[in-house]
Amino acid sequence: MGGGARQLAGYLAAVAGWLAALAAAVLPHWRQSSYAGDAIITAVGLHEGLWMSCAAQSTGQVQCRLHDSLLSLEVHIQTSRALMVISLLLGFFGIIVSVVGMKCTKVGEEDPVTKSRIAVAGGVLFVLSGLCTLAAVSLYATQVTHEFFRESIVPINARYEFGSALFVGWGASSLSMLGGSLLCCSCPAQERRGQQYQRQSQPSTAREYV
């Protein structure tokens, strides 16, 4: 795969990961009611996300309510919120920076080395964005798992399990890190040739002084 095609593939994968991370952050399905156990004790399905909680009745009616107080939220929700916001900001700046540094754009064509370095910087931003998304989703999933398996008087079919937004977040982090890694492979060609020339010329120069 050529450098330009690799950059384009990495950019498209990273943008898809950023859009998926945005969808995961907005969706109220980070955890949902568990239907494990012998019987379903309620006809209402509960879903909770970072910003709101929803109740879906068996009739199809869905009611959602935003989390009113920030300080009253649990620590893992606040931390996941902050990490997802940071991830989206890093991905947004990565989209802008990568467009400037990609070979298929006309910006900065007179200096291809600097242009490639800008593409690498955009790739680093995408990788950091993916890591933040991965940390947020994994932290939330760890808390859901802990609450599900801990000893409690709450019956197992009244507890919560993983929601669909967690899987969307894991997929988003994978795409962002994959796309960022491909962009980071855009090593400046001129700089590599210069380094190879310096390595080849150093031994001959040393022999001349001897």
From TrEMBL:
InterPro entries registered for this protein in UniProt: Claudin (IPR006187), Claudin_CS (IPR017974), PMP22/EMP/MP20/Claudin (IPR004031)
One Gene Ontology term of the molecular function aspect: structural molecule activity
Chain ranges passing through the membrane: 82-102, 118-142, 162-185
One Pfam family linked to the record: PMP22_Claudin
A cellular-component GO term for this protein: plasma membrane
Subcellular location: Cell junction, Tight junction; Cell membrane
Alphabetical UniProt keywords: Cell junction, Cell membrane, Membrane, Tight junction, Transmembrane, Transmembrane helix
Primary site of residence: other
Topology of the protein relative to the lipid bilayer: Multi-pass membrane protein
Family recorded in the similarity comment: Belongs to the claudin family.
Function: Claudins function as major constituents of the tight junction complexes that regulate the permeability of epithelia.
Name under which the protein is recorded: Claudin
Phylogenetic classification of the source organism: Eukaryota, Metazoa, Chordata, Craniata, Vertebrata
Gene designation per UniProt: Cldn19_1
